Amino acid sequence: MIRQEFSRADPKRRTALDPKKRQFAPATFQNVEYKHRLNFYVTPPTADITLEQFEQWAIDRLRVLAEIEACSFRNKNLTETAAHMKPLLDKYLPLTSSTSNSAATQIERQKDHYSHFILRLAFASTEDLRRRFSRAETTLFRIRFQDNDSRERQKFVEGLNLDLEIVSDEERREYAEELRAAGGGFPKRIEEESYYKVDWEKVPELIEHRRVFLKGGKAYVPGREQLSMVIAEFTNKLDKALETTSRALPRLDEDDRLSPILTHLSQNFTTPDANYSSSSTSLPGADISARNIDTLSSSFPLCMQNLHRSLRRDAHLKHFGRLQYSLFLKGIGLNLEECLVFWRGAFNKITDDTFNKEYRYNVRHVYGDVGGDSNRRGNGYSPFSCQKILTEHPPGPGEAHGCPYRHFSIDNLTALLQQVGVKDHEVLKGVKEDKEKQKFHLACNRVFEYAHKQEIKKVRDDGTWGAAQLETIVHPNEYFKRSYLLKNLGKNPTDGGGDVKMED
Amino acid sequence: MSQAVSSNVVTDRDQNNMDNSQMDADGGMSETAGEPTTRTPALDQTMSSTRVPVDGKTSTEVTITPGMKLEVKLEDLFADEESDEEFPSSHNQDIMASSPPEASLSPVRVEVPSKFSDSDVMNQFYKRLFPWRYLFQWLNHSPTPTTDFGHREFAFTLQNDAYLRYQSFPTSDLLRKDVLRLMPSRFEIGPVYTTNPRDRKTLRKSSAFKPLAKELCFDIDLTDYDDIRTCCDKANICIKCWQFITMSIKVIDVALRDDFGFKHILWVYSGRRGAHAWVCDKKARQMDDQKRRAIAGYLEVVKGGAQGGKKVNVKRPLHPHVARSLEILKTHFQSDILQDQDPWETDAKYERLLELLPDRTLNDALRKKWSSSPGRASTAKWADIDALAKSGTSKNLDSKALLEAKQDILLEYTYPRLDIEVSKHLNHLLKSPFVVHPGTGRVCVPINPKKLREFDPLDVPTVTELLTDIDEWLPPAEDKSEGKPVADWEKTRLKPYIEHFRLFVATLMKDESDVKGKREREDAMEF
């Protein structure tokens, strides 16, 4: 049998490819010419830039990414995010289309290119930063991709060489019905749409939401879902590149001009919930103890009130319910001993033995009292933000965690609200509308404002609370803190709320 | 406390390794002579605490296997002729031992039938019945030990409920030895890691230790059906509610095979009230969390917690997967749900049904009809919906909406309810097949998806029954004493299950070796 050699280099010429030798060869830099408005960021930049440019470009891009992340925390959808980002993008990272032919295009694209790679260096260091950077960059890419005109988009995609197999006419007709069903009834006539056949692993997003027809491990992706494939490819490449970069980072520290800038950059990219420290939530004079939780629970946001009610009703909560509630209680300043007392008392149908065996460890783990090194050093987990509660682990059968505004049906939500004392018809109507528009945080803030109407009016009139202290709540613990302070305005005159600081 | 235990274990194991090497020098121990005596409880005690030489059996295989390159035929591996100490046979002992083994064994099973995880019973089970070799081949994907097995995490639940994570073993013999020493009431299987899980703390960077591969797993548990099953609740099951599992397996199995193209899917009874699936294809094992999440999302149809209202909201037209599932589930709905479960028998219960129907006027008519004839069967109630809809009770009835609502209801009552967290994460641990459920004593046996109808969880043998099976076994009439010895598991009702597992593992290994063999042949051509 004769061996076919397609990609194998000629054995005699192999030495020329030896990377050890290539290392000392003079670098063949090429000046990148930016043909497309979009960039997959495959080739790293090679030209020289000044340190000022290095820092300025990075900061500009960071502003954009931070704002994108903030949008996702406020649960904005893609169109809203795009609308919100438009002015910012125009200011900090403009990218004009190729058709405009202006002289600025190349410079703009260079800035886009370089700033991406600088931030890549800054954010490759930890797993968490890498994940957030990749998510924000993907959103940015998505906004720009959709913003492109279709011809330019097509050109860009062709340039990517994505290696797509086109589904033949025969096959398309054979599966016409399935393809149409998977596409939500479209296209009306199967000939109107072209399909690509790809490994399902390439389009996990489409699989997850059952938006494509799947057979034998191949996904039949309609042409209009091309975006999803391109995005998946983009994220995939970026994640891999970030891994590689993180491994190369230690060798970078000989350059003491860049490292401080990079560290500084990555420190500025922090999230509200990552920053949530117990010191910033401490409430002087408040009695935060196990026996007082029932009283305090009137200041809890609806998600926590629901957990509290379920707990009191069933004397039990399932795993994610316990996790969400324990963390919240930790966040309001309940210490570990009190928290254990609280859970022990709440689970009153089981024996001490069962409690110690099955639940005690979990509570301690949450507080960082036990568990691996990193868990203990980090004092356990931080309380869940609304973002996390809304997007992760939707509740399954028999579970009470999650966000009632999102995970309850409207009838059950209204019933629950009425139980906790929200009976105003206007408010309930508003909540219903918010829920329909998927503005869950707005619904929650609406209820908050209703429940604290007088107090808010008072602090507004007095001018003791500024606008910053009354902006949208995006964290259950912030809800509690603000609610508690408002309800106890008179009782603690010395610091009547003056030192409430939003940690953003 | 658990920390103390785990460090203890590590040192113990090191000693074990030393013991083992000494044993090799001695040329191994003869197993058959020792076997009958170890059955007396007193000796078991000493063995588990001091690890007397009996532990060192089969160490001969350890010394041969690493690094060797043998042309091993699959048939040879599975041949029963060889004297196989993993499946010791009391057939041999009948000849060797002076007293019949029954006599010494009987106290073990009669005195403590209630406590299934009793260490004597477990010792017998692990020693004589557990299919160690096939478990090893299943996880190792090759006859010679590889890191697929060596870097795999095992987690033991000990008799005192301590939980030992990050155990790993280079070979199946060492795993077996440690299991016999620690006598866990059950153990779980985790992912393959980048390095040996036991060495994870010696690594310079903790991030270098991460999970690489694991079978894609599914977990279906009948407790998730508590709001719709009427026959039993909590930990109890009967053949009626087991049908929920039966239909789940059908739906998930066909989706994994036809849609995702997976071939090697092992279904396992979880020992009490549920079933697990292990998708063992190489492609499935290597998936990252995002892909696992995608599959989980694809298969998830029933969503929402206790307060979520309508639990099924699928898009129209129905996605091919949902349409196919609906087709499979239709017949089950009629017989297993409407007839056997009778879910809408009482007033309070049929209100739940009416909540899910879209038309107010029709609902009022139905309510009136049903409240006048209490105890009307669910089958009749279900038929009433269409009958009343046709009679024109409701003037502006949207028949399409009604049909869709009926489809959604059907799905809500039949579609698989997966414990989705198990499937989403690479580093989730799942109970190993063939271990004993400590509560019921039943062995977690594989379920043959082709014989789904015949499977009855209450028929699955318990560990004590199996030990009786061995004792009551009689050699076939045409006794050929020199013929191949019959392994202990072959004498019990475990036989069909282990045989199914063996076949499953054999096909899996064949598929893997085909790929590997091709590559090796190509490499060989280079010179």
Give the SSE map.
The complex is a heterodimer of chains A (504) and B (527).
Chain A: H1 19-22, H2 51-73, H3 78-92, H4 104-123, H5 127-147, H6 150-160, E1 165-166, H7 169-174, H8 176-182, E2 195-199, H9 204-208, E3 213-215, E4 218-222, H10 226-248, H11 258-267, H12 293-296, H13 302-314, H14 319-331, H15 336-346, H16 352-358, H17 360-366, H18 373-377, H19 386-391, H20 404-407, H21 410-419, H22 425-436, H23 440-451, H24 453-462, H25 476-487
Antiparallel strand pairs in A: 1-2, 2-4, 3-4
Chain B: H1 2-26, H2 31-38, H3 41-50, H4 59-64, H5 74-78, H6 90-96, H7 101-111, H8 119-129, H9 132-140, H10 147-150, E1 152-157, E2 163-167, H11 172-182, E3 186-193, E4 211-213, E5 216-221, H12 239-259, E6 265-269, E7 274-279, H13 282-285, H14 289-299, H15 320-341, H16 347-355, H17 360-372, H18 378-390, H19 399-414, H20 420-424, E8 430-431, E9 446-447, H21 463-472, H22 495-525
Helix pairs in contact in B: 2-6, 7-21, 8-21, 9-11, 9-22, 12-15, 15-19, 16-17, 17-18
Protein name (chain B): DNA primase
EC number (chain B): 2.7.7.-
Pfam families (chain B): DNA_primase_S (PF01896)
